[in-house]
Amino acid sequence: MTAYVPLDTSAVAAGADDVATALVDADIDVVRTGSRGMCWAEPLVELDDSGSRLGFANVAPGDVPAIIEHRERHPNCLGPLDGIEYLRRQTRAVFDRAGDRHPLDLAKTTVLEDCLLRDPEAMIAEVETSGLRGRGGAGFPAHIKWRTVFDTPGEQKYIVCNADEGDSGTFADRLLMEGDPYRLIEGMTIAGLATGASRGYVYLRSEYPVAAGIFQSALDNAYAADLLGTDILGSGKDFDLELFIGAGAYICGEETSLLESLEGKRGEIRVKPPVPAVSGLFGAPTLVHNVISFAAVPAIMKHGGTWYAELGVGRSTGTMAFQLAGNVQRGGLIEVPFGITIDEIVNGFGGGTRSGRPVRTIQIGGPLGAYLKPDEFDTPLTYEAVAELGAGIGHGGIVVFDDTVDLARQAHYAFEFCEVESCGKCTPCRLGSVRGKETMAAVMEGREVDSKLTIIEDLCEVMETASLCQMGGMTPIPVLSAIKRFPEDFRR
After folding, report:
1. CB 158 within 8 A of CB 203
2. What is the distance between the alpha carbons of residues 22 and 70, in angstroms, rounded to a whole number?
3. What is the pLDDT of residues 154-165, one digit of tens each?
4. With contact defined as beta carbons under 8 Å apart, do 192 and 160 qualify?
5. First and final CA of the chain: distance in angstroms?
6. How confident is the model at residue 211 (pLDDT cuts 50, 70, 90)?
């Protein structure tokens, strides 16, 4: 009998290491895996003694003897893995291998071998056919970046992965790097082959030490297996990849600040143009994507751009890794095609609030995302439909709040967050966030509410139109959405 126990950060925080030890003490073979994304079920244990796995949720070390004895009759048993509704309802193009095996198990893949033989322009055309858009927030068409880097002359070109996953309620990048690091390595290598880049960097946030250790080991294994470096698999093509650890600045999630940090400078916004695809790292053409964007590439190359484009709705093609967090019964990662409704995510997959109280709002798109009301939850999750609400999908994070939340406090927090995390380069962001926090504090104290709210609206207009980057430009989104949808919280 073999037991599969996740080793990712979420599972370990829930006690997975102690459960694994208890299984070993019971003479069970244990394989540590990545996460299935079922954070609500951690520690999750999968038992296999006949070629199929039984899932067990929220296992404690003391549960091990009874689980081994009673199997499917145990109250923690979720049933056969392929029958668990939470997983069965998903379409996994990126996370299909996560949780299935040890993250450093280098399974043979033919996708990279095929791409070594393919014409670069044909690979870029495949990405264009797929309709893949950047999964980091802006949703910019990926193929435009790829083709720009390919077409721009340069002795050295770079591939840079933005793994500085700083948005509250997001953890998809971490789960992928802790659970299937080779998927990211493969995606970045393919991007290098297609654009003519021979060197890549993964910029990982310092708060992810487990991901850093696993990914560095995966890099070492990939070099040993001739999947990276000089003359990959005897093809005559080169690609080197290096892990770089950030210094804890949220602003380095913005691509030009990230590039400044990679160059050893202070993380600070660059004025655009030129865009990184023309003049990026060290002034060279640079393709910048986030983890999930690169990780979608192997599936596109394996199954074809048309297959990927048929997933999703309209221009929102493919799958998205939505992450549920906050006051929610079943928090975790769900990979589904675009077009699923907010309600299906929050109340279907998520099961409503953990407190049992009514859902009052969700925030979608990170700490600078909009707050939405339950009567908007029938909106399909596509870039276009969500934009019509004045919101954005961002990195796919959805944070749930029950009816005890105070939206005035949340608006105050948005200004405070911007104040702390601003790089300070532009005045609207650097000073606007401070004045916004002070003015919102006056509103919360009931002082000249109407006039103060007018000042806040004017201030938000300046920040939105005059800030150099989205840090200042998007801070008004949570503030104004809270004021618009929950005005009663600002006049208590």
Report:
1. no
2. 16
3. 999 999 999 999
4. no
5. 60
6. very high
